[in-house]
From TrEMBL:
Cellular component terms per the entry's GO annotation: mitochondrial large ribosomal subunit
GO annotation, biological process: mitochondrial translation
Record-stated family: Belongs to the mitochondrion-specific ribosomal protein mL43 family.
Keywords: Mitochondrion, Ribonucleoprotein, Ribosomal protein
Residue intervals of the Ribosomal protein/NADH dehydrogenase domain: 32-105
GO terms, molecular function: structural constituent of ribosome
Subcellular location: Mitochondrion
Transcription among keywords: no
The protein, known as: Large ribosomal subunit protein mL43
Top-level taxon of origin: Eukaryota
SUPFAM superfamilies on file: Thioredoxin-like
Gene3D superfamilies: Glutaredoxin
Amino acid sequence: MTIRALEKVSVGQNGIGAFILQCKRMDIHYCDHSGSSRGMNIFIRSMLQKFAASHPQIEFAVSPRPRKHPVMIGHYINGNQKSICVKNMEPTEILKKAELLRDASGEKIKRVNKSVKSINPSVRGIWSPYHGKGITV
């Protein structure tokens, strides 16, 4: 007797079959003259090109904002955006913040009551008194 595995059609679930990066655009604002943008200016000149080349699915927009602190804004596919002020940070710290924006989902932080979320909440299924031995009512 040969044993055959059951064939199952794959079901598309978010994050299982293919990974879709949630961050679609990153805006980088800086000032040419302020001291709080010194690290951002170095980051733009030395690290941003390599970071952008390694993430072609993200659109990068760099624009000056005179007399303002440097800011990085991540725009996500769900329509939300997150902004991080990077004033007086070193270029390596700014790179970590850019990676944080890249890896974020764009969802607002909310309290989770259940520790596990699942499509199938119970392995046993929904209990009913009509299943099993056939109780008469």
